[in-house]
Amino acid sequence: METRDWIRDGLRAIAGGVLAIGLALTNFLLFVLFVVSLVLTPVLGLGLVLLPLVTRLIRARAAAARHIAGWWGVPIARPYRPRPEGTLPVGPGAYRQIVTDPATWRDFAWLLPGALVGVVLGVVSLAVPLYGIEGILLLPLWIWLGTGDYGYGAIWPIENVGDGLLSVPQGVLILTIGVLAAPYLRRADAWFTRLLLAPTRNAELRSRVTELTVTRADTVDAQAAELRRIERDLHDGAQARLVALGMTIGLAEEMVHRDPESALKLLAEARETSSTALVELRHLVRGIHPPVLAERGLDGAVRALALHLRIPTSVDSEVTERLATPVESAAYFAVAEALANVTRHSGATFAFVSIRRAGDVLHLEVGDDGAGGADPSAGTGLRGIERRLAAFDGTMSLSSPPGGPTIVTMELPCELSSPRTTLSSGTD
């Protein structure tokens, strides 16, 4: 790390210590409010209203502590149980849900210890650099004025200025130690916060089960919708043409002896119908698993997709190896849906796709220079991308301020396909 970097981190940590001292005061206030709201519960039911409100404040304070801990490389997940549907924000239902949530009591248990640890570490991270600055600036000044006193009752005469200036290198050393140690003190505070505010093992498992339940339901719904689409396309397209083809050939059979010329026309029409049905079947198969994806992999398929867009689209990909087939398919269709949004809604003149792989995570970015303001709740296909990625524990984030640009960032756990899979994919 360069000198400029550790100085910047140290100053940021010292500022974080000052912030921790200030936030500690809110911990004490919230502790008192929580106790009061519990005591007032039997009194006219005031706690049924007051406790949920105070708990919201405590959770907001705890969320701020988790966010600050994340600044120092200590991520802390939210441990709270979701509020049941139909439950009011205040009242008996909300009160019951709050007091039965273990995370509520962990937040409460953290308030005072978290405040004390934050104050102590904040004071240390602030006092040591200040003491070093005192040695550099103030002590030589006091000695020069003949009023320097180190606590031993000895007043340094003005002729000992040279000896007094020895405090300058000592101050520099203390200041350096303080600046270097401040980030470690902030991380120690973050780890203590994580000790009390992080989800327990049971809470993590419960949250994971809930997430998987929602993901499975979304996946089942998406698969059902996809099956309905395929059935509808078959029924309205290829199936109807194949039925017409059979009827045309039947008429030709009846007319082949008594009107050969008309029969030939019907057979020519049947040939055209069969070609059209074949094209529709190819389009349908391409919608299920594009042949170009099986032949060229994700990199080649996305580049081929970009060539057919009506706006210039650049593709920057570092992933040339083959991935597992389900992952390739999910990533391809997610990029395709994002690019479809660009062409339909953004009004952009340029788009880009970036594909990276870091370890076992595939990173995808699709961006444009359009009008921005994309909203997943507006039915622009972004929810579909989220559902598609969630089936693989993937995530999607969106940055689309009004006026643009819009950037869709997707992450997808992935693994390389086996050599056998790669070989078969390339020879089919």
TrEMBL record:
InterPro entries: HATPase_C_sf (IPR036890), Put_sensor_dom (IPR025828), Sensor_HK_TwoCompSys (IPR050482), Sig_transdc_His_kin_sub3_dim/P (IPR011712). Its EC number is 2.7.13.3. Keywords: ATP-binding, Kinase, Membrane, Nucleotide-binding, Phosphoprotein, Transferase, Transmembrane, Transmembrane helix, Two-component regulatory system. Residues 19-197 form the Putative sensor domain. Residues 226-293 form the Signal transduction histidine kinase subgroup 3 dimerisation and phosphoacceptor domain. The chain crosses the membrane at residues 12-33, 39-58, 115-145, 165-185. It catalyses: ATP + protein L-histidine = ADP + protein N-phospho-L-histidine. Pfam families: HisKA_3, Sensor. One of its GO terms (cellular component) is membrane. The keyword Transferase applies. One of its GO terms (molecular function) is protein dimerization activity. PANTHER family: NITRATE/NITRITE SENSOR PROTEIN NARX-RELATED, NITRATE_NITRITE SENSOR PROTEIN NARQ. This is histidine kinase. The lineage of its organism: Bacteria, Bacillati, Actinomycetota, Actinomycetes, Micromonosporales.
